[in-house]
Amino acid sequence: MEKMKERTAQIDAVIHKYMPEPKGYAKTVLEAMNYTMDAGGKRLRPMLMQETYRMFGGNESVIEPFMAAIEMIHTYSLIHDDLPAMDNDDYRRGRKTAHIVYGEAMAILAGDALLNYAYETAAKAFTMTGDLSPVVSAYTILTRKPGIYGMVGGQTADVELTGTPLTEEALNYIYENKTGALMEAAMMIGACLAGASDEEVYQMERLAGIVGRAFQIQDDILDIEGTQEELGKALHSDEENGKVTYVTIHGLAGAKKEVEDLTGAAVRILEGLSRKNPFLQELILSLVHRRN
């Protein structure tokens, strides 16, 4: 999709603008930060944020620090997720992971640094507008959703319950938080900064939660049906790590049906909104039917 390539390139430029220069005594960790941030990827979360912002009429640069920040938070989570103590992956996005290139200690520090630098970056938005109320609300969302009541909570359950007979309730909690929470943060922040109503921000939270669940189930499907060239990482890692997934419980056919049902629910929410963004709908459909 040509539009997606153009938007990804624009987002890359925004992110690059906010990344620190590798120099001084901290040069190695700064290089590791930049190495992982430069690895590419879909830039899905900042793209969802920007397109939601546009849908609700936002047109200022105040969104940019938040776009960079959420990608930094996502990337830190990938660095830590790939560590030997977690999923122990050697490749991510088709290139060697941070702990393989820089060592485990430096990878941990790079993840820590990206998380801290994300909030330092987002805080720049406070000097970019006279209307601070939406920025305060957006910053609050950014501090909560990636934490223990969101992404970290989901990751904790994922780590602790790996290798156990996982219930569907526990699996839903993991998907809603480990994957869904950061997507919710992206779309809620986009709506919030554009001046959307509380109800509209809530609808974006609902929509992103559904998309996050569909995205993760599709990821489970691709772990079985995809290729290493498509995914840029090893296949069957869930099975090898003893993880129960939606496919484990419901089978491939059941997983594919759930993705279709969730996609329909997401589209209905979008169509029910008074604001429209056709590209956002295209983006969501492409994400849940992706091959990588």
3D architecture notes:
With 292 residues, this protein is mainly alpha-helical. 71% of the residues lie in helices and 1% in strands. It has a two-stranded antiparallel sheet. Helix 3 packs across helix 9 (168-193), helix 10 runs antiparallel to helix 13 (246-271) and helix 13 packs antiparallel against helix 14. The longest helix has 28 residues, at 198-225.
Give a quick set of tags describing it.
71% helix, 2 strands, mainly alpha, 1% strand
Secondary structure layout plus pairing:
Layout: H1 2-18, H2 27-37, H3 44-55, H4 63-81, E1 91-92, E2 95-96, H5 98-102, H6 104-122, H7 132-144, H8 151-161, H9 168-193, H10 198-225, H11 228-231, H12 237-240, H13 246-271, H14 278-288
Antiparallel strand pairs: 1-2
Taken from the alpha-carbon principal axes, the silhouette is globular
**Cα end-to-end separation:** 14 Å
Beta-strand residue percentage: under 5%
Query: What's the helix-strand series?
Result: HHHHEEHHHHHHHHHH
Strand order of the largest sheet: 1-2
Number of strands: 2
SS-derived structural category: mainly alpha
Radius of gyration: 18 Å
| Number of separate helices | 14
Helix residue percentage: over 70%
Summarize this, please?
By secondary structure, the protein is mainly alpha-helical. The chain is 71% helix and 1% strand. The mean pLDDT is 92.
